[in-house]
Amino acid sequence: MTHRWLIENGTFVVLEEGRSVIQGYMLIEDDTILYIGETRPEGEEETFTYDGKGQLFAPGLVNTHGHAAMSLLRGYGDDLSLQVWLQEKMWPMEAKFTSRDVYWGTALSVVEMLKGGTTTFLDMYDHMDQVAKVVDESGIRGVLMRGAIGLCPEDVQQQKLDEAIRFAKDWNGKANGRITTMMSPHAPYTCPPAFIEKFVQAAHDLDLPLHTHMSETASEVAQNVEEYGLRPVAHLEKLGFFTRPSIVAHAVHLNDEEIERLAANKVAVSHNPGSNLKLASGIARVTDLLKSGVKVSLGTDGAASNNNLDMFEEIRLAALIHKGFSGDPTAIPAEVALKMGTIYGAESIYLERVGRLSAGMKADFIAIDTEQAHFLPRTDYVSHMVYSAGPKDVLHVWVNGEQVVKQGNCLTIDEERVRHEAQACFEGLLAR
Ligand SMILES: CSC[C@H]1O[C@@H](n2cnc3c(O)ncnc32)[C@H](O)[C@@H]1O
Ligand SMILES: [Zn+2]
């Protein structure tokens, strides 16, 4: 049986050329948006209607870089630089993570993301079967990959690669198509060149995109030059990384030539402003990247370097910091910031039918409660969404046509249990 329903009296964020918001109707059948427009679709007199008065309907937010299970380490290592944070705080704790920790840590993140309006997230981590299980059970959409650090003997590297390949094959297209997969060596400074080349080859063989951390800190770039005689962009290009569809996280320290190389190779960039500010990594050249034609989207990174998974915050940071940094108030206008958190995000992770409210797209959308002081007056809802809204304004969330959040509560996950188990996992990690 098909499930067909019509939202009426709604305000819809369409982000189209010439008009960003419309008042009207959206018709949904199963997992797909059939119609969106200002006039009531004909022949739908018998269709179930939902009154959207006082609600702003927007595409679900798309988080293009993170490590969900790291929510177990939120607040465990603050106010440190990337390398100290990784080597002295994160990696020793992550070495103790079990599958159970990854399951509950990921579930904790998915609760936070869904309730905050994120309907799709990219995740690079270990024990990825557990992450996929949470995605399957919760109804969220996930682009998942086994991240691999190659600072280990060759036989261990091979095990990690085999596992990454096995995971990518097993889960691609699963959970009613809500899971897709990528191949992901962690970073040029943690993966020897030959190891990265094997990931590139596997991505070719499996016809999958690639993802990695790149040029996040100045010292990482200097180290790359010292070790390999090349900056990270040229290094990855030499290893064939950009011969595949690819998205790199951070890309903070780029020169003009590197921006051109990324644009020429159609490499997408996941900009993570919150994490980059907190780890004092720097501010990415987002205005220049966009000007050169690079697709830039937004990510939170893990909750241990952010310290939340609030995509409204990343959208707002993107709209604010580039103005402050450049002295140009027109840098990253609100509409561009919102596109980075929605449609550019979906395009960057190769999801063709996600990120926009229009006919034929997947029914991944959120309803924001605009009957609140900070949404008045009704001047510009894109502006309000970027500069005024927050995760607590999200009333309802649908992914693939299924409602997963209703009146601010998760329908698919037992939030109280998740909070209890996540705390127990953290205490267990401390005790081991
Ligand atoms: C191989 S699993 C993912 C790996 O990435 C680490 N990580 C988390 N945040 C960052 C970041 O900002 N830069 C580099 N690496 C990061 C995480 O701790 C896992 O070990
Ligand atoms: Zn990361």
What is the fold's blueprint, element by element?
Blueprint: E1 4-16, E2 19-29, E3 32-37, E4 48-51, E5 55-59, E6 61-63, H1 82-94, H2 99-115, E7 118-125, H3 128-138, E8 141-148, H4 154-171, E9 179-181, E10 184-185, H5 193-206, E11 210-214, H6 218-228, H7 232-238, E12 246-250, H8 256-264, E13 268-271, H9 273-278, H10 286-291, E14 296-298, H11 311-326, H12 334-340, H13 343-348, E15 365-369, H14 381-387, E16 394-399, E17 402-406, E18 409-410, H15 415-431
Parallel strand pairs: 1-4, 1-5, 6-7, 7-8, 8-9, 8-10, 11-12, 12-13, 13-14
Antiparallel strand pairs: 1-2, 2-3, 5-15, 15-16, 16-17, 17-18
Helix pairs in contact: 2-3, 2-15, 4-5, 11-12, 12-14
Ligand LTUXU72L is lined by residues 67, 82, 86, 90-91, 94, 124-126, 147-149, 186-187, 213, 216, 275, 301-302, 305.
Task: Describe the overall structure.
With 432 residues, the protein is of the alpha/beta class. The chain has a domain at 4-60 and 354-410: Roll (Urease, subunit C, domain 1). 38% of the residues lie in helices and 23% in strands. Helix 8 (256-264) links the parallel strand 12 (246-250) and strand 13 (268-271). Helix 2 packs parallel to helix 3, helix 11 packs across helix 12 (334-340) and helix 12 (334-340) packs across helix 14. The site of the ligand CSC[C@H]1O[C@@H](n2cnc3c(O)ncnc32)[C@H](O)[C@@H]1O has 20 residues, from helix 1, strand 7 and strand 8. The site of zinc ion has 5 residues, from loops. Keywords: Hydrolase, Metal-binding, Zinc. GO terms for molecular function: 5'-methylthioadenosine deaminase activity; S-adenosylhomocysteine deaminase activity.
